[in-house]
Write a structure and sequence with these properties.
It is built from nine helices and ten strands. It is α/β, with parallel strands linked by helices. The termini are far apart.
Length: 315
């Protein structure tokens, strides 16, 4: 008996991800879920140097600034609730110390510039088409930092505006890294603070825009949103807030991602890494027992073996 409607997916054969790949993940918080999985399995991964970015304009802005090596100065910051913030970055980077924030922003810009040039795959997860425009400067922000709502205008990006932003993003990436593979996905997390109907409209704009720019072999789409909405069409796959995917859902979507994007020759290494990770997290009844010492020696041997093949892997 078939109890699911499974989305048919075609395995990536041109540019799959393996342990030689260099990955940069940008975007909505679902990119963190996938990024954490890639980190767990010790792929060469960097994610969200400016923190979580929810909409395409914020991602385009980060890539533009990184390529142009923008230097952030005091005028780029705003002080609110006893902390310094930058409208281009998530509040995760905010700090009570202005110079610390500037140092972190400029370090992130420098690191991102290098990562964009070296990446083999850039995975961009779009979360919403809704944006907030800071009235005082007439600029779209990445994060409002809990500044009063009256200082912003809320806008819905049109499909054409998103297409224009995505095309600009791809052109910028290709300018510094002509061989990079760009993989888009839409976050399955519903932004219900915008409203139920508004969230559906927002996701629709993103999906329509992405499919309008899938015209080359090195720009792809992975249907995270569709898998959540269709294959996992049940509230038992949601966290307690009934909005975010729970651990089971994240693991399921990750397994579908592995099916499509991870090369077959990487899977034995993934199994080795997982065995080591489980060994590291193991808590013995008696740390001094002969059995546990033997276990640790065997674990060290496995780590040495995998690091001899892939020196960049650290545990």
């Amino acid at each position: 008996m078939q109890l699911q409607t499974i989305i048919p997916l075609k395995k990536e054969i041109r540019n799959p991800i393996d342990y030689n790949s260099k990955l940069l993940l940008l975007g909505s918080c679902f990119s963190e879920n996938i990024g954490d999985k890639l980190n767990y399995f010790k792929f060469q991964t960097n994610q969200n140097p400016f923190g979580i970015l929810f909409h395409p304009k914020a991602i385009e802005n980060l890539i533009t600034n990184a390529i142009n090596e923008k230097e952030y100065v005091s005028e780029d910051l705003i002080f609110q609730n006893e902390r310094w913030h930058c409208f281009d970055a998530h509040s995760h980077l905010s700090s009570p110390n202005k110079n610390e924030l500037l140092d972190n922003l400029n370090s992130a810009i420098s690191a991102t510039n290098k990562q964009l040039k070296e990446a083999t795959h850039i995975i961009i997860t779009l979360g919403t088409s809704w944006v907030y425009r800071f009235i005082e400067t007439d600029t779209v922000v990445a994060n409002c930092h809990k500044i009063p709502q009256k200082k912003f205008l809320k806008e819905l990006l049109s499909v054409d505006e998103i297409i224009e932003s995505l095309e600009a993003t791809i052109a910028l990436l290709k300018y510094v890294n002509k061989d990079v593979n760009v993989l888009f996905t839409v976050s399955p997390i519903r932004h219900l603070k915008d409203g139920f109907l508004e969230n559906t409209q927002s996701k629709s704009h993103l999906i329509t825009a992405i499919h309008s720019i899938l015209n080359t072999d090195d720009v792809s789409y992975f249907p995270s949103y569709e898998i959540m909405m269709d294959e996992l069409r049940d509230y038992r796959f949601y966290a307690e807030d009934m909005v975010h995917p729970n651990k089971t859902a994240i693991n399921y979507i990750w397994e579908r991602f592995i099916e499509i994007w991870i090369s077959e020759n990487s899977k034995p290494t993934m199994q080795e890494v997982e065995t080591i990770q489980k060994g590291i997290s193991h808590r013995p009844f008696n740390e001094n027992s002969e059995q546990h010492q033997k276990f640790l020696k065997n674990l060290d041997s496995k780590i040495s073996k995998i690091q001899s093949k892939l020196p960049f892997i650290k545990f």
